[in-house]
Write a structure and sequence with these properties.
Belongs to the cation transport ATPase (P-type) (TC 3.A.3) family. Type IIA subfamily. The protein is α+β, with helices and mostly antiparallel strands. The chain folds into 4 domains: 4-40 and 115-221, Calcium-transporting ATPase, cytoplasmic transduction domain A (Distorted Sandwich), CATH 2.70.150.10; 234-303 and 678-743 and 757-880, Calcium-transporting ATPase, transmembrane domain, CATH 1.20.1110.10; 307-333 and 537-668, Rossmann fold (3-Layer(aba) Sandwich); 338-533, Calcium-transporting ATPase, cytoplasmic domain N (3-Layer(aba) Sandwich), CATH 3.40.1110. The protein is 45% helix and 18% strand.
């Protein structure tokens, strides 16, 4: 392995054949991928398809069916044996297909949720999935990013990384750019290297990728990447517990039926198969598969709505959310900051143009100004220099990389005619980066004449105490208290107009000035104020109203000025007349108990720190709320992790927030949260629907057999018929219910209690009552036909079989709503219509196709039979279809 840390930046670039200022060309990428390999750790080897198929037959009840098949064959009942075998095989094929599709969906989700890397390709900085990084790529990293591959650092601005995944050392490591002469150093001592999987905790820098995938230090430590394990949701745990209970019931019923049947003189073999069939009827074999499919399809629908679910547990939790704590910038707003006003020379200038449009003009009292306004060029020039954003033109589009506030400063400078060459007139000597505690950024630069000075930009309330002078048209003046008040008034005026304010200033330096001195950012000279706005997204107001109707409170949390936050909140109708607005300093004064007392009345938190966000989340949770928390920065991760539903931004979010979250917004849009909650509620509703359908159908099958045995009558259904009903009549419509559209009132109901039983809100009663009637009408159909002619038992069984199937297929439409069967359009769910029609076709096939009649012991039915079947089948829905109970 090359000792990259022992080479200079230029030597590394030469060895890897890359231009540091231009990056790789797009033509080279495929060749480098083939030569150096993919930038991915090896996945855990998945089971072979054949093994996956065999796993479908390890279920306890399937093994019982296979045993029954063996016994049937040994007793010479070959038709029964073949029929059962075919049904088991068909059920296994369906399970295999569902599990195979689920694995593919999981792989797709992983690729969609993969972190991105900023690379220089063809001279332009672009975002690509980290797995597409190749050896030789020039990569830009900054605070909160996870390093995508092993790289040699070639630029470092107070860059520090946290390498505990690699070395176990929790303290950040300071990164340098100079080559290290000493040989044989371990990874933790290679201070000019960045390693795959480690986190940038401070500053920013640039590196050249030297190793990817399994050739990285992380690849050497782990030869296999641990496969992400799917989390079991509380719902699935409850269903698993239900399954255990049903198995006990099934075994008890099997023994009961066998004993009763033998005592009544039925053959032992027949009663054994009947008992097994009843046991199968008790257990909805398709339930776990349908739950998985419903969750998987719901996740796919969320992807189409720009929401990626990283943890399936979040799907269920989404339906219980009662509070959304949302960031303002980029989530509720466009995240395209635009400078609309400037305060300079004690007067306001207006700026035209919206978004990242580079055309615009400057106005004073509606009068268009020339570009030679005193101090204007200096102010906008300094704003470009003290800046991390980059601006590239691609056709007619402006591509921005970096913070939206920095981007706004670049755009307004371009409107004055300044260019990238103006930006690079100064040599960067030192940078003191922005962070949430300092609320400012400073750079020390040197001009062509060797003159040094400090440029600083940041929050006006933080910088104003540090200003000693201010710049006027006639030069630098001492900043008096009167002038300070004028600046404060200007800040307030802009904030009242929902403008975010940013102050900018400078300080002349001597070459021998100590740059680490704490006095460096004092005695500054004020130049002016930027007033910029990030307009609200048009769709957010409607989304907030929909959440309110759903019993979900929306709370804005922002680091912006309180007046800006209040103005935006009012525009979005988020803040009611009696709603409270709290600032960070007020949160500091409040104890946790005091915050809990008033938290339900607060709708806006302004000027907050990450620590405040964590306190807010915990206060809501203590009040019994299920909290969804959004964030994009690395410091949002604690609050996101502490929340019930952590939501990160797919575009602006850092890798660490994405990893801490359970939901990623691909478009950084608040309206997408509302869509995700609606989808989460609908998924849970659909699970209740098919649980209701499957269990009520199974109750009907059990009762018709049990009541017939207790009345000493012949069995109305044979085992093969019961198995067929379970597979076809139950399976297809139940799966279609999992695809049902949301009801109209899904976002008008209060959030569901997360501890609520699956059988809550009358579902248990619905299952038992509907199942009882389905069993009764099926038995009634059998008795009516059997008593007419005892010689034709096969005819009576065929009528009972058809009645059971039709009663269940009519009942499935009743399961679509908790209210009347007629409250929803029956043709709304086309999948359900197709499933029902398919089940009817298969029923007719079993009854009228001669080759299947001996297998299922069916016979032809006549018109008067169908009148009886349809009439009896409709009774359960007619009796209960108009009732909510």
């Amino acid at each position: 392995m090359n000792k990259w840390y022992q080479l200079s930046a230029s030597q590394v670039a030469k060895k890897l054949r890359v231009d540091i200022n231009h990056g790789l060309s797009s033509k080279e990428i495929d060749d480098r991928k083939k030569y150096y390999g993919e930038n991915a750790l090896q996945m855990e080897q998945q089971s072979a398809k054949f093994i996956l198929f065999l796993k479908q037959f390890q279920d306890f009840m399937v093994l019982i069916l296979l045993a029954a098949t063996l016994i049937a064959g040994m007793l010479g009942e070959y038709i029964d044996a073949i029929a059962i075998m075919l049904i088991v095989l068909l059920n296994g094929c369906i399970g295999f297909f569902q599990e195979f599709k689920a694995e593919k969906s999981l792989e797709k989700l992983k690729s969609l949720a993969a972190p991105v890397a900023h690379v220089l390709r063809d001279g332009i900085w672009v975002k690509i999935p980290s797995q597409d990084v190749v050896v030789g790529d020039i990569v830009k990293i900054s605070r909160g990013d996870r390093i995508p591959a092993d790289m040699r650092i070639i630029q470092s601005n107070t860059l520090e990384t946290e390498e505990s995944p690699l070395t176990g050392e929790s303290l950040p490591v300071v990164k340098t750019t100079e080559k290290i002469v000493q040989a044989g150093l371990e990874a933790q001592d290679q201070s000019n290297m960045g390693f795959k999987g480690t986190m940038v905790t401070r500053g920013h820098g640039v590196g050249i990728v030297v190793h990817v995938g399994m050739h990285t230090e992380m690849g050497h430590i782990a030869s296999l990447m641990v496969k992400t394990k799917r989390l079991i949701t509380p719902l699935e745990q409850r269903l698993a517990e239900l399954g255990k209970i049903l198995i006990l019931v099934a075994l008890s019923l099997t023994i009961l039926v066998v004993v009763i049947g033998i005592n009544q003189g039925h053959p032992v073999y027949q009663m054994f198969l009947a008992g097994v069939s009843l046991a199968v009827a008790v257990i909805p074999e398709g339930l776990p598969a349908i739950v998985t499919v419903a969750l998987s399809l719901g996740v796919q629908r969320m992807i189409r709505k720009k929401a990626i679910i990283r943890q399936l547990s979040a799907v269920e939790t989404l339906g219980t959310a009662s509070v959304i704590c949302s960031d303002k910038t980029g989530t509720m707003t466009e995240n395209k900051m635009t400078v609309k006003k400037l305060y300079i020379n004690n007067q306001f200038l207006s700026v035209s143009g919206d978004g990242y449009d580079l055309t615009g003009h400057f106005y004073l009292h509606k009068k268009k100004l020339a570009h030679d306004v005193p101090n204007l060029k200096r102010m906008l020039h300094y704003g470009m220099v003290c800046n991390h954003a980059s601006l590239n033109l691609k056709g007619h589009s402006t591509i921005i990389e970096g913070d939206p506030t920095d981007a706004a400063l670049l755009v307004v400078a371009r409107k004055l005619g300044l260019s990238e060459s103006d930006r690079h007139q100064f040599k960067l000597i030192k940078e003191i980066p922005f962070d949430s505690e300092r609320k400012r950024m400073s750079v020390v630069v040197e001009d062509d004449n060797g003159m040094r000075f400090l440029i600083v930009k940041g929050a006006p309330d933080v910088l104003l105490p540090r200003f000693t002078y201010y710049l006027t048209e006639s030069g630098r003046q001492v900043l008096t208290s009167v002038e300070k008040q004028k600046i404060e008034h200007a800040v307030n005026d802009m904030a009242d107009q929902a403008l975010r304010t940013l102050a900018i200033g400078f300080k002349p330096l001597q070459k021998n000035d100590h740059l680490n001195n704490f006095q460096l950012e004092k005695d500054l000279t004020f130049i002016g104020l930027y007033g910029m706005i990030d307009p609200p997204r048009k769709e957010v107001k409607e989304a907030i109203l929909a959440c309110k109707q759903a019993g979900i409170k929306t709370v804005m949390i922002t680091g912006d000025h309180v007046k800006t936050a209040r103005a935006i909140a009012k525009q979005l109708h988020l803040l009611p007349e009696d709603g409270l607005v709290l600032e960070g300093y007020e949160l500091n004064r409040l104890s946790f108990a005091e915050l809990k007392e008033i938290i339900d009345d607060v709708y806006v938190f302004a000027r907050v720190t990450p620590e405040h966000k964590l306190k807010i989340v915990k206060a809501f949770q203590e009040k019994g709320h299920v909290v969804a928390m959004t964030g994009d920065g690395v410091n949002d991760a604690p609050a996101i992790k502490a929340s019930n539903i952590g939501i990160s931004m797919g575009i602006s979010g850092t890798d660490v927030t994405k990893e801490a979250s359970s939901l990623i917004l691909m478009d950084d849009n608040f309206a997408t949260i509302k869509k995700a909650i609606e989808e989460g509620r609908n998924i849970y509703d659909n699970i209740r629907k098919f649980v209701r359908y499957l269990l009520s159908s199974n109750v009907g099958e059990i009762l018709v057999m049990l009541f017939a045995l207790m009345m000493a009558m012949p069995l109305p259904l044979i085992p093969v018929q019961i198995l067929w009903v379970n597979l076809v009549t139950d399976g297809l419509p139940a799966l279609a219910l999992g695809l049902d559209q949301p009801e109209d009132n899904v976002m008008e109901r209060s959030p569901r209690n997360p501890r609520e039983s699956i059988f809550a809100r009358g579902l248990g009663y619905k299952i038992l009552s509907r199942g009882f009637l389905i069993g009764i009408v099926t038995l009634l159909a059998f008795i009516i036909v059997f008593q007419q002619n005892n010689a034709f038992l096969e005819h009576a069984r065929t009528v009972a079989f058809a009645t059971l199937v039709m009663a269940q297929l009519i009942h499935v439409f009743d399961c679509r709503s908790d209210s009347s069967v007629f409250s929803r359009n029956p043709f709304e769910n086309r999948y359900l219509i197709i499933a029902v029609l398919s089940s009817i076709f298969l029923l007719l096939l079993v009854i009228y196709w001669a080759p299947l009649q001996p297998i299922f012991q069916t016979t032809y039915l006549f018109f008067h039979d169908w009148l009886l079947i349809i009439g009896l089948s409709m009774i359960p829905t007619i009796i209960f279809g108009f009732s909510k109970k």
